[in-house]
């Protein structure tokens, strides 16, 4: 795996002038990557431009990567940021279509296998490869340039087009440094959308980035750029993986107990396969471990597989500062370390580490993390501990960091209200009633109380679907963000339509669940952090709950596999009983709180940064007086999100405004 970047000029211009451009642009674009943990830099220059690759050694095969590839026989240039999954199946397919046998193919690195697949299947090669990848290809004879992303968009890749020229890069900063001054400007629509939403979500619109005319290729897609006529590149964006239009449910005519056993076996086998590929490294493996279902499920399977290889799993858990005494409701698990310790005792090859990073806060790490993520992040309280875990994992010699962050959409998906709703809209009124009653009986909740909650949720959903609810508009910031900008870009109207597709309340159809899982912006929001953390620490983030094979399985399973007979999140709570202990699986009403001590940390560490001068450009988007009053107020749980959101935007503008108009 690696970072990739490059430049092309598709015009038939003076070769010497192009060569001078190439040398200067290559030097400018390479510079930001020198701050990353890259084992080897490689560049291939050709008549129209150059491709570069900064190779990281996450597994033994990466040492043998010969990227970029310049294939003179086929007049093709190929480079890739890639880790393949399912290599054995791919090798069998390739052996039929090329002049190499299986043994020879097994010895090739991932980039070489992907290039052979391209030679055989061209644009359809993504139907045969899977894993984590962003791939750039230039066909010299036809002057066709391609960028492909993997099915779930694990790796971010950006591009910028100006006339006959195109720049591409894993990071955005190399493009900013290489594109002529005055060509790039801040994307006001992107910034307003980002700042408007009261959640950690940063990317709202697919393909868009914080800069006008710079784009990020979304999951399961490819860009084709060519210049058939004139002097301007024509873009074609293609979504190659549209699973929603394929068969949605695995059919089974077996009895319910036999059916459940069948689904359980398929799920466990798929999960093990995904984790096995995720821990494919010749170095050590780390994992984030909380008291939740997803991280413990991933860690349990990883520990089981690593035990067979006499290997350890280094577990990392964020804990509050030592004297934290914050007030939370009874459902909150503020310090997850006791449950994590109990879990780790069941697997003697897990080495638990509990990180409190006492002197750090979102204030002290703000500028560095904004510079690293290249966006005005609204996840700053969580980014601090995620960053610390990556740092410690690297210090332990780990090359893989396992997470289960997508698990809520896949392995631990399912809630009783959604199941009841799905039965009702299918016309199964008695089954819907039975499911609600089963849940009440299991947890001792009166039927009348449950029915009241169901009716309330149904009314909320109806009002939302009819655009009659007032609460939805209140979730957008029109206090600090200028309301005229919200209106100008129709942010609320646009996001309402998106939320109608993927669901806004707990009551969602199975199709809405599928829409959420495949939402392109969800993948964009995850990939920007995973990719950049791996570049700066040399530890690749792997999430088996977001593996293409797991996604396809989850999208194909019927509703009763996620919630049935009162058991929510059933795939883990019931099917993972051999791996995840009952004290975690059966904890229904209490949840771990991430960064519970954030406000206390901020008061102790770096508070002076709040009163520091802010960039004047900030107030192109925000209301000056309201921001000033916010910063004059005392820090408290209720205002921390807005304080950090605004400071992150200020830090972003400070860091990147010098590159734009």
Compute the number of helices: 25
Number of strands: 19
Strand arrangement across the biggest beta sheet: 2-3-1-9-8-10
| Distance between the amino and carboxyl termini | 34 Å
Question: pLDDT below 50 for ≥5 consecutive residues: which ranges?
Answer: none
3D shape: globular
Beta percentage is 15-25%
Secondary structure class reads: alpha/beta
What is the CATH class designation of the largest domain? Alpha Beta
CATH fold node name of the largest domain: Glutamine Phosphoribosylpyrophosphate, subunit 1, domain 1
- What would you say the CATH architecture of the largest domain is? 4-Layer Sandwich
Assigned CATH superfamily of the largest domain: Aminohydrolase, N-terminal nucleophile (Ntn) domain
Please give the oligomerization state of what you see. Answer: single chain
Helix percent reads 40-55%
| Alpha carbon gyration radius | 25 Å
Q: Profile the largest sheet.
A: 6 strands, antiparallel
